[in-house]
UniProtKB/TrEMBL annotation:
InterPro entries the record matches: AAA_22, DEAD-box_helicase_OB_fold, DNA/RNA_helicase_DEAH_CS, HA2_WH, Helicase-assoc_dom, Helicase_ATP-bd, Helicase_C-like, P-loop_NTPase
Lineage: Eukaryota, Viridiplantae, Streptophyta, Embryophyta, Tracheophyta
SMART domains per record: DEXDc (SM00487), HA2 (SM00847)
This protein's name: RNA helicase
Gene3D superfamilies: 1.20.120.1080, P-loop containing nucleotide triphosphate hydrolases
Residue ranges, annotated region (Disordered): 1-78
Catalysis: reaction(s): ATP + H2O = ADP + phosphate + H(+)
Amino acid composition bias (Basic and acidic residues), ranges on this chain: 15-28, 43-78
Ranges where the Helicase ATP-binding domain occurs: 98-262
Keywords of the record: ATP-binding, Helicase, Hydrolase, mRNA processing, mRNA splicing, Nucleotide-binding
EC code(s) of this entry: 3.6.4.13
CC annotations in GO: catalytic step 2 spliceosome
Length: 706
DNA sequence: CTCTCCCTT
């Protein structure tokens, strides 16, 4: 173990006798963080994400209304829900809010996550008659919040979800009908709806919720709404945010907007004032630099275990590696049951969440920031350890490389993390108010698809678009350059027919181009399968390789690579064999394939197939010749081609830099002359993932201007 | 001889 000369070590030893008090200072002043709102108390379910699970909707309803309540008189349920609505904090602002909307086109609402605005405001608007003038839309950054809000609202209104006035529309799930007036959806869904309804003519009110998350879709949507509002004078816009900073930016964008801060005026009974959040003392916090927060988190968890009453612990770390390190170190003390929790976790680990730990055994959940919003069991945890960090994808436009970057979490994230410890304590491994200010996604993303979407919606000069925060000009320029090379823009910068078609597909522009190109190579049937597989998950989420069965898993994987067909064709073979096995779960298990990824690929593929018809591409198939398939892929990915040089690769066009085929590729150590890759690893940007051999002459054929 | 946070059209 580390010697006692390490500042962290000393720190922890000094704190041993008196538990947290020495290291952590409780919040002294009242601060509206970590509010236990009535809604949070009532509506505690945080279901684990189950993509494409058709039984999900029902299970949400069942959780919202326990079995006993379902049997009770419908009227008494209705009465109970009606009373509950009045206890919500937001209820006190009902009239103020409606008045504000009546006399202003744009209203910004500042309120904490979970204060009831998502479920209540659309209902207030409906009750005030806005539903008679058009639809009431409410957008969310995430599909599952849209779905659970709609489920809750349909309960409160006593209507059947999706068959009456309340519905929702999220990826792969359209739960609406002609009767739907109150519609919950994701920002992305609404953005796509703008393709067919540029002025959102069917809506009378729109509420853009959780704008402070600053997702790509939210930012683009808000910018577009700025343009739409002048000609839609009878359209009301509400934007909600948890932070004042974001509210100010929105006000700046819309020349006149009314800001309603529903946090300040609220009053809480004393027991809701929190004395359960502990921060590091300033001098100690300075020791917690990026280098040792993992160590600090592990030690804090152990100290909680030694000094605090029973209750499960949730530790927020940043990635899978850290979780595995922490799991190993915490494994030693008995009476600790360790649960890892991260996206794309193997199914067998997921099962641990639902196992009840034996009496006297404390559960420690080691999670990434996924646990800020998803929570697999109904039971909460008593203790939260917040490292204060997360990992974020970032894009450098000048090198055109994507990387994962360690980032300090925002105040909003810290609040979400802390709110998981409703009745216990939250230990933050940083100073009070020492939050990060993460860049909005639009400033750290590859903008190719953003520019394509904007063009498709008639925004011809993206540098003059109303961004809440402008992206680097270089990123916009690089995006236009790639779109030109792909043939989506012509030499005067107009969207071409190819570009129009590409914009319809909900996948990355280069994949979208491959689909459009598959028309001329008569293999759209195969290409949409490959595109769906590549879009379904990142890197290794298709093949499963458990620690203890590496050899078996490798053998299973290599079966799809027979003939050295390349990783793209291997993915096609995986999809087709799964389909031939009737989409069987057993087949996935036997072949070490992750069924979650496959189900998602199937959903995406179905969607792509429907869109082929929309853009006039015939579903064509040439299963016995892989060359046309590879050519179609090359039409999208010529920019990712590399030529062999001795034992490594150099990009065909771009500053010299050696690349290697990733060891998990079917072509690892094969050294084909010329290859194309889907992506580079985010850590070193040196390893090509998903590699296929191509003929270098094709490059001239598919991208003469590149 | 290396291995990527979380979302979403």
């Amino acid at each position: 173990m580390a010697s006692s000369s390490s500042p962290v070590q000393v720190l922890y030893e000094s704190g041993k006798s008196d538990s947290d008090k020495k290291r952590f200072r409780s919040q002294e002043n009242y601060d509206d963080e970590i509010i236990v709102s009535p809604e949070q108390n009532e509506n505690q379910e945080r279901p684990v994400k189950r993509r494409s699970d058709s039984s999900y909707e029902q299970s949400v309803e069942e959780r919202l209304l326990g079995p006993r309540e379902r049997e009770a008189e419908p009227n008494s349920i209705k009465e109970k829900l009606k009373q509950e609505r009045k206890t919500l904090r937001i209820y006190g602002y009902r009239d103020v809010l409606l008045e504000a909307v009546e006399s202003n086109q744009v209203v910004v609402i500042v309120g904490d996550t979970g204060c009831g605005k998502t479920t209540q405001i659309p209902q207030y608007l409906y009750e005030a008659g806005y539903g008679k003038k058009g639809r009431i839309g409410c957008t969310q950054p995430h599909g599952f919040t849209a779905r659970s809000a709609a489920a809750r609202v349909s309960q409160e209104m006593g209507v059947k979800l999706g068959h009456d006035v309340v519905g929702y529309s999220i990826p792969f799930e359209d739960c609406t009908s002609e009767k739907t007036v109150l519609r919950y959806m994701t920002d992305g869904t609404l953005l796509h709806q703008l393709y067919g309804e540029p002025e959102l003519i069917s809506y009378s009110v729109l509420m853009v919720d959780e704008a402070h998350e600053r997702t790509l879709s939210t930012d683009i949507l808000v910018g577009l709404l700025k343009d739409i509002l002048p000609s839609r004078t009878n359209l009301k816009l509400l934007i909600s945010t948890a932070t004042l900073d974001c509210a100010e930016k929105i006000c700046e964008l819309f020349d006149s907007a009314l800001v309603l801060d529903i946090r300040i005026l609220s009053h809480y009974p004393p027991h809701h004032q929190d004395d359960h959040v502990f921060y590091l003392e300033a001098t100690e916090a300075n020791n917690y630099l990026e280098a040792n927060y993992l160590d600090a988190a592990i030690r804090t968890a152990l100290e909680i275990h030694e000094n605090e009453p029973s209750g499960d612990i949730l530790v927020f770390l940043t990635d899978r590696d850290e979780i595995e390190v922490a799991a190993q170190q915490l494994h030693q003390p008995h009476q600790l049951s360790i649960c890892p929790f991260y996206e794309n976790m193997p199914a067998e680990l997921e099962a641990q969440f639902f196992e009840t730990t034996p009496k006297g055994v404390r559960k420690v959940v080691l999670a990434t920031s996924i646990a800020e919003t998803f929570w697999p069991t109904k039971a909460g945890v008593n203790y939260v350890v917040d490292s204060g960090f997360c990992k974020n994808k970032s894009y450098d436009p000048s090198s055109e490389k994507e990387r994962l970057q360690l980032t300090r979490i925002s105040k909003a994230s810290a609040m979400l993390r802390g709110s998981q410890a409703l009745l216990g304590k939250c230990f933050r491994l940083y100073k009070r108010n020492d939050h990060g200010n993460p860049k909005p996604e639009v400033q750290r993303s590859n903008l190719t698809n953003v520019v394509l979407t904007l063009r498709h919606l008639g925004v011809n000069d993206s540098t003059r678009f109303h961004f809440l925060d402008p992206p680097p000009t270089e990123a916009l320029r690089k995006a236009s350059q790639l779109l030109f090379a792909l043939g989506a823009l012509n030499n005067v910068g107009e969207l071409t027919e190819v570009g129009e078609r590409m914009a319809e597909f909900p996948v990355d522009a280069m994949l979208s181009k491959a689909i459009v190109a598959s028309d001329q190579y008569k293999c759209s049937n195969e290409v949409i399968s490959i595109v769906a597989m590549l879009s379904a998950g990142d890197h290794d989420s298709v093949f499963h390789h458990p620690e203890d069965k590496q050899v078996d898993a490798d053998n299973a994987r290599m079966h799809f690579h027979s003939g050295n067909v390349g990783d793209h064709i291997a993915l096609l073979k995986v999809y087709n064999e799964w389909k031939d096995a009737n989409y069987s779960a057993q087949w996935c298990h036997e072949n070490y394939i992750q069924i979650r990824t496959m189900k998602r690929a199937r959903d995406i593929r179905d969607q792509l197939e429907r869109l082929l018809e929309k853009v006039g591409i015939e579903l064509s198939s040439n299963p016995f010749d892989i060359e046309p398939i590879k050519k179609a892929i090359t039409s999208g990915f010529f920019a990712h081609s590399a030529k062999v040089q001795k034992t490594s690769y150099i990009p065909v066009k771009q500053p010299p830099k050696n690349l290697h085929i990733h060891y998990r590729s079917g072509l690892a150590r094969m050294l084909p002359k010329c290859v194309l890759y889907h992506e580079l690893d985010l850590e070193t940007n040196q390893y090509m993932r998903q590699v296929t051999e191509i003929n270098s002459e094709w490059l001239q054929e598919v991208a003469p201007y590149y």
